[in-house]
Amino acid sequence: MSDFSIPALIRGELIENDWAPFTTGGSGGKFQAANAHHLVDQLPLGSPAAMADLHEISFEEILDVLEALGKALDFENNSHIREAYEAGLAASNYPPSLLKNSYLTLPHAFARDAVREIAEQRLGIEYLEGWVEKTLADGRQVRLRAFGARSLHIPAGNGGLISAVTIIRNAITRSDAIIRPPPMIR
After folding, report:
1. Alpha-carbon gap, residue 133 to 141, rounded angstroms
2. Mean of the pLDDT values across residues 32-49?
3. Calpha distance 170→172 (Å, rounded)
4. 179-183 mean pLDDT
5. So what's the pLDDT on residue 186?
6. What span, in angstroms and rounded, lies between the C-alpha atoms of 8 and 178?
7. Chain-centre distance of CA 87, in angstroms?
């Protein structure tokens, strides 16, 4: 019997079947997750060019989606977030107050102004929206643009906030990411 279940989400499709059993490293609890061995062919895109449609999405649209997501992740009103917190308690050795705080701060992490600040301070929004012309010290003209990447992220710990930062960074750079539970879950 599993203490909780972790589905897979692949390009908008929620996969809640073909479970594989696991035990947690923190408390010895049990959980089940969608069997990655049967999903691996669906994970990578055949070509980075398949991500071209992501660059048709404006930065403001990305902010709209992330802001709505943040509002939906409210601990008091979202049973899935409370379930994730309970699963985190079973899977880690974090003090409950520390773990709960990582879930309570989710709406703030996805707030429009917070995401805009991350994009502007880390990359520059103009580089996310299109090609930016620059003149080098020797007079040469170059055009620069920030592109997303295909990546694998293994968040440190089992709290919600670190995974939220991964989601935000991948969304603003229009990246294709695989986010895997941390190694402490086995």
Report:
1. 7
2. 81
3. 6
4. 64
5. 37
6. 10
7. 18
Q: Report yes or no: 106 and 100 within 8 Å, Cβ to Cβ.
A: no
Contact 94, 53 (CB under 8 A): no
Long-range contacts of 97-101 (CB under 8 A, 24+ apart): 98/159, 99/158, 99/159, 100/75
Count other Cβ atoms within 10 Å, centred on residue 162.
Answer: 15
Separation between Cα atoms, residue 154 and residue 171, nearest integer Å: 17
Give the 3-state secondary structure of residue 54: helix
How much of the chain is in helix, strand and coil states, percent to nearest 5?
Answer: 45, 20, 35
Give the position of tokens 């701060």. Answer: 105
Average pLDDT value over all residues in the chain: 85
> Looking at residues 108-137, what average pLDDT do you find?
95
The 10 Å CB-count burial string (b at 16+, else e) for 2-40 is ebbebebeeeeeeeeeeeeebebbbeebebbbbeeeeee
Task: Please report the beta strands in the chain, taking only residues with DSSP state E, as ranges in sequence order.
Answer: 4-6, 8-10, 13-15, 19-23, 30-34, 132-135, 141-144, 150-153, 176-179
pLDDT given at position 25: 62
Contact 46, 38 (CB under 8 A): no
30-34, 57-61, 123-127, 159-163: lowest mean pLDDT where? Answer: 159-163
